[in-house]
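USER: If only I could read backbone structure tokens as easily as an amino acid sequence. It would mean a lot if you studied the pair and described how this chain folds. Here is the record:
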Amino acid sequence: MRALLVLSVERHLERFAPLFSRNDFHVHTAETSDEALKLARLYKHDIIIVAHEFGEACGIDLLERMRVAGVETPAIVLTRSVELSTKLTAFRAGADDVLSSPFSNDELMARSRAVIRRTWGHGASRIRIGRLTVDVDAKVAEVDGERLNITNREYAVLELLALRKGTTIKKDEFLSEIYDGRDEPEPKIIDVFICKLRKKLALHCGGNPQIETIWGRGYMLREAAEDNNDLIGVAA
């Protein structure tokens, strides 16, 4: 996943950038309004964290500019204010949540994950697709309560499929989410991850493969139409 941190105070950057990195986010940071708007439009982020007190500017005004520019990425506004009027202004500007300081790192991460889940229609951290469960907070996947032995990269592929269940995901989207343009391999690597996931899911599901290939469209996690089984649709 990818996060954009719009923070002008150095101590905030030093606190929050490593926090999101430790929680498996690729992090972009912006210290000016123009830089923030450019990054928000250029990259597909999963969450934007914007400070209300943004240097000499107003983070809420900046968020409103992003919305006018067509940026739909969910956003959390951080503020020192506890005034209801500030929170209402932030929500009207397009905020998905408002967090007043002081707050803990754990609370910020929990709210960020919750906002991301809600964006994709998931109210809880445990996403269930038939016998498969993906816990996006614990970063684990299970079949019938038995934990899948998968690598971090394989989990990242499976998590993205689960979060966007019913949505087609192309190979370049997987590469962008997993590698963020850094030492990015060839798109064929996604086929390798999918192949390994297919074998592991089949092993845990009594030999019934849960990965289907649908050529020419992308990757998709979807509910099967029959037998209450679930299929992960895959297209090259």
